[in-house]
Amino acid sequence: MSTPYEPQAKPVARRCMAFRKNSRIALPAPEQSRRQASVVQSAWRHFGEPGPVIAFLNTPHAALDGQPLHLAIDSDEGLGRVEALLKQMTKKA
Question: What pTM was computed for the model?
């Protein structure tokens, strides 16, 4: 009786992102996280749908001279400017 040749199976190395405690990416400061949550909530209340919220937050706006999300995360003053713009946009609509 002859047996067909069967190559030995070699373990396959996994290539995936594993959870690592020591990430090289710095986490945002608590104040930055608070401002980010606040601006996302404000934009969500204004637009009510994910597409427009994402577009607004990530697209540079002429009245702000920058991206609303980045400005809001950077400082309380930037957050105030973005929220004031959203209020103006609400009044015009």
Answer: 0.71
